[in-house]
UniProtKB/TrEMBL annotation:
<protein>
    <recommendedName>
        <fullName>MARVEL domain-containing protein</fullName>
    </recommendedName>
</protein>
<dbReference type="InterPro" id="IPR008253">
    <property type="entry name" value="Marvel"/>
</dbReference>
<dbReference type="GO" id="GO:0030672">
    <property type="term" value="C:synaptic vesicle membrane"/>
</dbReference>
<dbReference type="Pfam" id="PF01284">
    <property type="entry name" value="MARVEL"/>
</dbReference>
<feature type="transmembrane region" description="Helical">
    <location>
        <begin position="194"/>
        <end position="214"/>
    </location>
</feature>
<keyword id="KW-0325">Glycoprotein</keyword>
<comment type="similarity">
    <text>Belongs to the synaptophysin/synaptobrevin family.</text>
</comment>
<keyword id="KW-0812">Transmembrane</keyword>
<feature type="transmembrane region" description="Helical">
    <location>
        <begin position="134"/>
        <end position="159"/>
    </location>
</feature>
<keyword id="KW-1133">Transmembrane helix</keyword>
<feature type="domain" description="MARVEL">
    <location>
        <begin position="11"/>
        <end position="218"/>
    </location>
</feature>
<dbReference type="InterPro" id="IPR001285">
    <property type="entry name" value="Synaptophysin/porin"/>
</dbReference>
<feature type="transmembrane region" description="Helical">
    <location>
        <begin position="97"/>
        <end position="122"/>
    </location>
</feature>
<keyword id="KW-0472">Membrane</keyword>
């Protein structure tokens, strides 16, 4: 059981601990902005003669747009009977991967911070801990790069799927003569870019953290020792050219 007397917050003030706090916060922002997203788009249908109707399309996690019903079966719009209509695309896989990486990063940062604060002496004395921290940091940097890239591509497809061109294709009434459909610009959809930015911010933070975790490993200390030994040998050779 961890007692208050064993806690030391000094490691949090160092780069190794401070960057973990940043990673913890940005991971929460990343999976929260994606997993908790829910946005609405208003589809305005102009029927002519100053008549118009409005449909509301709600887009939310996990972004299975092909299951999002814009119009119910046999609904009448502008005096036209319209069949059931859906948006295009299923982006659940990149969204769920992105959220899973975010939750895993958030959990790892929280556990690691507690370990730094409570067991930093054991961390520095036992080689396996800094080695493990370094390897996991490298893996998370790769995971964030892959998941953020996939999610960025998915977001571009989602934004395209809810624009006016896509709605005109998927909604049959929009193809009738004299009917004009348009999607109001949605701030909610633009906010999806925030989750993408958080993902690439995580990529940067975890890549930078590779350097700080590596410095704590025996591999870095061995490399420094070899370097100093080599410098010492060269210095002796210069002083004693024999």
């Amino acid at each position: 059981m961890v007692t208050q007397s064993r806690m030391d917050f000094a490691p949090v003030k160092e780069p190794l601990g401070f960057i973990k706090i940043l990673e913890w916060l940005t991971a929460a922002l990343a999976f929260g902005s994606c997993g908790g997203y829910s946005g609405t788009n208003a589809v305005t249908i102009s029927c002519g003669e100053n008549r118009s109707e409005t449909l509301i399309a709600t887009v939310n996690y996990p972004f299975r747009l092909n299951q999002l019903n814009i119009v119910e079966f046999n609904k009448t719009l502008c005096n036209y009977s319209t069949s059931a209509s859906y948006l295009t695309g299923d982006y659940a896989v990149p969204a769920e991967i992105y959220v899973d990486v975010g939750i895993a990063s958030f959990t790892y940062c929280m556990v690691t911070l507690l370990f730094y604060v409570c067991y930093m002496n054991a961390y520095t004395r036992t080689p396996i801990w800094p080695k493990t921290d370094f390897v996991v940091t490298v893996l998370f940097a790769v995971f964030w790069l892959i998941s953020a890239s996939l999610w960025a591509i998915a977001v571009q497809h989602i934004i395209t799927a809810v624009d006016s061109n896509s709605v005109n294709i998927n909604l049959s009434v929009c193809r009738e003569i004299g009917v004009v459909c348009a999607v109001a610009e949605s701030k909610d959809i633009r906010d999806l870019k925030l989750s993408v930015n958080c993902g690439f911010l995580n990529v940067i933070l975890w890549m930078v953290n590779i350097f700080f975790t590596y410095k704590k490993t025996p591999w870095h200390n061995q490399r420094k020792t070899i370097h100093y030994q080599r410098l010492g040998t060269e210095h002796r050779l210069v002083r004693d050219p024999k």
